[in-house]
Amino acid sequence: MKVSQLTGRDNYFEDFEAGQVFRHARGKTVEALENVLITNLVMNTAQAHFNEHVMQFSPLKQRISYGGVNFSLVMGLASQDTCENALAELGLDNIRLLTPVVHGDTLYAYSEVLTAEPAEREDAGIVTFRHYGVNQRD
Known about the structure:
26% strand; 4 helices
């Protein structure tokens, strides 16, 4: 599988074909600010996100980042290359959060083109991606 690296060039429907995999060039280190601010705003009060004392006795020994924050960061890193020229985003499904992310982890995004099909409009197409994120330890 060939992995190409992108950084915000003009990507249109015609530029994508099934089987392509892109490593997006930018990464983002998860700061405590993202976890605490956003988790507070959505009122996710899970101990794993807020209680450093309790988490010291967990296998991770520290608080973990809220999955919604991690997911949003990965999607944001991918969006510059995959949907900057989109007319619409048609759906988002099968979100899976498989590995804990802790403050200080740096997330990177990958996108795999699953399908690229013509749309009913002459000037558009439908691209289906699988987006996934990894930290600095892959």
